[in-house]
Amino acid sequence: MSEHTNGRHEHTGLKKNAIGWFSVFLMVITTNGPLTSMAGGVPASITLGNGIGLPGSYVIVCAAYLLFAVGFCAMNPYVQNAGAFYAYITKGLGIIPGVGGAGIAVFSYNAMLLACYGMLGHFMHVAFAALGIDAPWWIWASVSAVAANFLCVRGIEFSGRLLLLLMASEVGVILLADLLVLLHRPASDSLSLLPFSPDAVFTPGFGPSLIFVVASFMGFETAAIYSQEVRDPQRAVPLAMYSSILFIGLLFVGSIWLMLNHFGMSASLDMAAKNPGAMWLDMFATLAGPTAAKAAAVLVLTSLFAAVLSFTNVVTRYWHVLAVRGLVWQALSKTHVRHQSPHIASAAHTAVMLLLILVCASTGLDPMLQVLPLASIPAAIGVLMAQSLTAIAIVSFFRKHRSGVSLWRSQLAPTLSAIILIYFLVQMILHVELLSGQPALPSYTLALSVVLVGCAVSAYAVYLRHSSPHRFEQLSEFVAQS
Question: Which helix H or strand E contains 175, and what residues bound it?
């Protein structure tokens, strides 16, 4: 029987010691879809951002998130909860900001999932239409949502094994491309370090580049979401977080740098501007042959599905912990008797995603030109806003609770990371039209929606404090006990 129960036969606890740190690492990496980013996001970043200076932007953002991880991991022993942002913000800033942060996180992750379903549905439509199966994108997106729900219910161990296979294939093909670039270069032709020079990085496009680069790291904080299911969480969560940030940074920095050297600096800019969706795949086809390129195109689909599965696991655990704390429908707290997975939360989440997919389809939204960019705005801005609040909460927590944690880990690093993340957030908001590809009004309206959701959910917490003191007291107990 789990430690949280609402009744004799109603399990609400997640499975203990189900996975190791490497499985958490895989969950984090797959939320970023490295192959999808290399094949689609990176060329767009080159065109709309700082061009050949993009690898330098990745170095800077990677360093910023390593700085954030210092304070995040220092606070990890004091937070044992699958709510991640919710748990940290609540511990550091109080119940009402914490509940607001939870609302922002759930809203953002759902938006990210909708963006992923738009892409996945589109690419599956194209792939299967070539085989004579011409179903619309929303059918494929809906089928993927049902499949993700099934795998989520099967449990975190099963998801971890599947993600290991998918990630090995996805990262393997990127590393193969990198190796082929090196092998096909003449021995006398040295690699240019121009992409790392300050003149290339700090151009007027540096701010816009942060929009895309920050999105590539999105999801590393989800390592803490699995703290109740991982073995030795005090060691596993920091290890998974640091490893994932470094891995993402090194993979993108190295692979983008080698791709730029393969095409040449000037030619890379032309290629990214003329046909961004084919840039990486064309390079891989040239180096490995057309058959290998077709296999890589299939792996783009599995990359997207892996991201969908990872985010589904994340969102269902958010719903689960919020239900355990009495903030949402309590039935969502129940876990499967056999798999100890949040099966009701997963089913409810899947129903919401299916509804959103059908709404997009019924209103005639194009999955790539409208669903993807419009959903990406609240996703990217919301997660970055929650990260900024978390960094501030870490500073506040250690000021209130004196401990043996060093000044660097408890104050200096989280303070610096908060300043940097807020700068990233400002840059993202200032250039939100680049992210959406839409006019200013709808773009800024969607950005504002994140703030409105946070305020609305915080207002709900205020309402609970007055209308249901007992439920609010349960949240207070969470602050004291977690």
Answer: helix 156-183
Count of other CB atoms within 10 angstroms of residue 232: 11
82-97 confidence digits (pLDDT tens): 567 888 999 999 999 9
**Residue positions counted in the chain:** 482
Bin 192: left if φ > 0, else alpha if -120 < ψ < 50, else beta: beta
d(CA 176, CA 181): 9
| CA-based torsion, 324, 328, 330, 332: positive or negative | negative
Number of other residues whose CB lies within 10 A of the CB of residue 55: 26
Mark residue 289 as left, alpha or beta (left: phi above 0; alpha: psi -120 to 50; beta: remaining).
left
For the entire predicted model, the pTM comes to 0.90
CB 282 within 8 Å of CB 135: no
Q: Is the pLDDT of residue 331 over 60?
A: yes
Residues in Cβ contact with 473 at an 8 Å cutoff, skipping those fewer than 6 apart? none
β-pair partners for 10? 7
**Is 40 within 8 Å of 389 (Cβ atoms)?**
no
Count CB-CB contacts under 10 A for residue 8.
6
Report d(CA 296, CA 99) in Å as an integer.
42
CA dist 465 and 475 (Å) reads 10
**Three-state secondary-structure class, residue 6:** strand
Alpha carbons 349 and 148: distance in angstroms, whole number: 11
| Assigned token pair, 369 | 């030109």
**C-alpha distances out from residue 20 to 139, 157, 230, 261, Å:** 35, 9, 5, 38
Measured CA to CA, the distance from residue 470 to residue 438 in angstroms comes to 46
- Assess contact for 74 and 405: CB atoms under 8 A: yes
Residue 220 has pLDDT above 90, yes or no: no
CA distance linking residue 467 with residue 482, whole number of Å: 25
- The helix, strand and coil proportions of the chain, stated in percent and rounded to the nearest 5, come to 80, 0, 20
For residue 472, what are the CA distances in angstroms to 86, 99, 144, 228?
A: 15, 11, 37, 23
Q: What is the residue whose two structure tokens read 């919020």?
A: 322
